Amino acid sequence: MPLMSDLSTSMISSSSSAFLAPISFNSRAQTVSVPVKSINIVKCVATPQEQQTAYKTNVSRNANIAKLQAGYLFPEVARRRAAHLLKYPNAQVISLGIGDTTEPIPEVITSAMAKRSRALSTLEGYSGYGAEQGEKALRAALASTFYRKLGIEDDDIFVSDGAKCDISRLQVVFGSNVSMAVQDPSYPAYVDSSVIMGQTGQFQKDVEKYANIEYMRCTPENGFFPDLSTVARTDIIFFCSPNNPTGAAATREQLIRLVQFAKDNGSIIVYDSAYALYMLDDNPRSIFEIPGAKEVAIETSSFSKYAGFTGVRLGWTVVPKQLLFSDGFPVAKDFNRIVCTCFNGASNIAQAGGLACLSPEGLEAMQEVIGFYKENTNIIVDTFNSLGFKVYGGKNAPYVWVHFPGQNSWDVFSEILEKTHIVTTPGSGFGPGGEGFIRVSAFGHRENVLEACRRFKQLYN
Amino acid sequence: MYKLSACCSMTCGISFQPKMVLPSLRVQKQGNGHCTNVPRNVNLEKLQNNYLFPEISKRELNHLDKYPNARVISLGIGDTTEPIPQKISLSMANYACALSTADGYRGYGAEQGNQALRKAIAETFYKDVVIKDTEVFVSDGSQCDISRLQLLLGSKVTIAVQDPSFPAYIDSSVIIGQAGDYQDKTGKYQNIEYMLCGPENNFFPDLATTPRTDIIFFCSPNNPTGHAATRTQLKQLVRFARDNGSIIIFDSAYAAYITDDSPKSIFEIPGAKEVAIEISSFSKFAGFTGVRLGWTVVPEELLFSSGFPVINDFNRIVCTCFNGASNIAQAGGLACLSSEGFQAIHSVIDYYKENAKILVETFASLGLKVYGGVNAPYVWVHFPGSNSWSVFTEILEKTHIITVPGSGFGPAGAEYIRISAFGHRERIIEASRRLENLFSKREALFNFVE
């Protein structure tokens, strides 16, 4: 790990090399979330550590956070990976776990960010605080690129530093007195942010669910779309399509039903479309393609998986003017208030990159990179198919959802890691509905993906 | 689809906020628009007005509409104006370019921040007080960190703030559900302890008369008053927190502006690690207001009443509700903390401090009571007996200068105006000229000169 031991030497020239120190594996080797040396302090468990003689404040711990069962899923996967590396320091670990992009960002995009950076050193080019909602040009470009003809206007769009942060900001808007539904399995930030916000009851170990959250089971049997006739009404419905982790993409017909369901119940859909550009089939890419959706839905999306901006940090949320709380108050007004008070805008340099992404050249370049990851996905799908597994997803999303019937997914995860040095993500990390499944992400250098598939074949043949 | 019914309240006793400019937030559904059945968050209903700074922006825009040819000078929102030193922006540019290469590409970074940057922050700002890099959490700025800290603490804690104070502490507290209703009469939210800070108590609260709260927000050097707490004052504060089992959230965003030997970090005070969190920012330090970079220090020694380390929960929040500051911004941060970058940044800070000096001299020469401007880029001017929104409006109308009315920072700011010292030198000088012109005319509203 690069450590800056001597600050007095010019860190300008060495800083970038420290930052860019080559890593031998294609993942977050030196950026593991849990620093190894203080692993006994920053644990991912909820048990209190009594310290008899140490001074304690008289401030009670937030009971909501105490409800969380373990660390957030992905740092936990990272922790296991780090532990594995300690055990096998020479292993060529391949990371198909955390969905982290690996391919360089197209030059048309980075050059725009470099240009904006340099401009910040000039009188004409310097800019301070930006609008918290995002730069006008970017909001306009997002509207015209993704929501043309859908009646979404520039000022319905709020630029952010990514979907994960937006999810929490939306929870802050909603507050603790709303109920929510999630798909089961689903991206863990929906559930975890709900617990933190105080919307849920305790975790029930027998069913592996938090009380007061409606888990909408999505399985191969129901085509990964919940049976809405059995779903209880909740205020908020989180829905991700193309889905992380299952890779399932909802059809127009399904989304029409979802919107109707929300309308009938007076619910708000929070629609996560972060993987829309991975869609192969002719399914809706935005919830707003469905008539009436503007009155029942918010859409959140991200540049992370489109432009490799996982580290650059840029996303957006659409809150239509037509979306109203029960008293008629526009949701967008409250979201704006949160954005102005709890946030201060996405980095101006990242936004310059975002604008370049949406230029014709940028869009083409992004499609190329997306195409590359999709080819990875095909290779992984073919591999597991050829091994006789029931494989889902992989067509409309960069995730492959592999069924291991009757098996505990953390056990499968561990076995795969131990025997092939491949990191995946255990399905149960996404909810009880993920038990018996493994999520294999398709982000990676081609040679790593090919090598991983070779190892899978060896293990399972 | 919906209509906004204008609030009819034009005068409400001591008007801490000019309610007449803001339509009521109550709307009535009209026509066939669908309303969901989701109740609005009652905490957001409690908020009295727009967040302060967008309101100031709005006023500026309205003014420009009215006087399209006016050369408006913004000394309102504390927005940095001078270019970022080249070495720093170049390092960001290089980092961005490297993202297009196989070797230089980086995806997700650690949510807590880049290791080298965490270390550099610890070594630059906390070397003598021994804060570890693992206790430093890099962020996209203080405004976001304040809300993440509120998420950490939850709705059941009580807070104290200085009065006046940076509005995000109060607003985020209301939003998260810690506060009661707003009381028009006092200009305060119930359940929040407002610790008066004024010239009469040397801008440090009388702790002997301050009830216990779980959390104490304390900003030094202070926004808006500019006061930097002395070592003695901070020792008292730490003692107070210790005696009450409270947690101080110490905002040191302006530490680099300190001229005298006032403490730059709460951790300079012995025992502070067991009672305090510190937040800070590259915004006013490096002109990163748009680039977005800051940090929060949560010492390992800071424990909840159960003995559970606060740092564990903050880490959980950071991993779940955040995904790290932009890697490009972090590269810039690292460059800021190199010896060359650090030096260049201090030149810019000195520039703003010189601006502050000019403004202080201007007001002082007019016989007005001026505070701050020595350890912070804010000048706090007293107009006894006035209504600060009226003074704000008068200054804007007559000199086309944007300031910030003190009541935006709390009821104790009601007679004050905050002037920020960020701006190109020639504009500061021009602003001073216009202000001299205005006040020396001794307009009826401004007869506060002794």
UniProtKB/TrEMBL annotation, chain A:
Assigned keywords, A-Z: Aminotransferase, Pyridoxal phosphate, Transferase
Gene Ontology BP terms: systemic acquired resistance, salicylic acid mediated signaling pathway
Cofactor(s) needed by this chain: pyridoxal 5'-phosphate
InterPro entries linked to this entry: Aminotransferase_I/II_large (IPR004839), DapL/ALD1 (IPR019942), PyrdxlP-dep_Trfase (IPR015424), PyrdxlP-dep_Trfase_major (IPR015421), PyrdxlP-dep_Trfase_small (IPR015422)
Top-level taxon of the source organism: Eukaryota
Assigned protein family: Belongs to the class-I pyridoxal-phosphate-dependent aminotransferase family. LL-diaminopimelate aminotransferase subfamily.
Name of the featured protein: LL-diaminopimelate aminotransferase, chloroplastic-like
Annotated organism of origin: Durio zibethinus
Lineage start: Eukaryota, Viridiplantae, Streptophyta, Embryophyta, Tracheophyta
Gene that specifies this protein: LOC111308628
Automatic annotation (TrEMBL), chain B:
One GO process term, biological-process aspect: systemic acquired resistance, salicylic acid mediated signaling pathway
Top-rank taxon: Eukaryota
Single annotated GO MF: transaminase activity
Database matches in InterPro entries: Aminotransferase_I/II_large, DapL/ALD1, PyrdxlP-dep_Trfase, PyrdxlP-dep_Trfase_major, PyrdxlP-dep_Trfase_small
Keywords: Aminotransferase, Pyridoxal phosphate, Transferase
Cofactor: pyridoxal 5'-phosphate
Pfam families xref list: Aminotran_1_2
Sequence ranges assigned to domain Aminotransferase class I/classII large in this UniProt record: 72-427
Keyword Transferase listed: yes
Family designation: Belongs to the class-I pyridoxal-phosphate-dependent aminotransferase family. LL-diaminopimelate aminotransferase subfamily.
Protein name: Aminotransferase ALD1, chloroplastic-like isoform X1
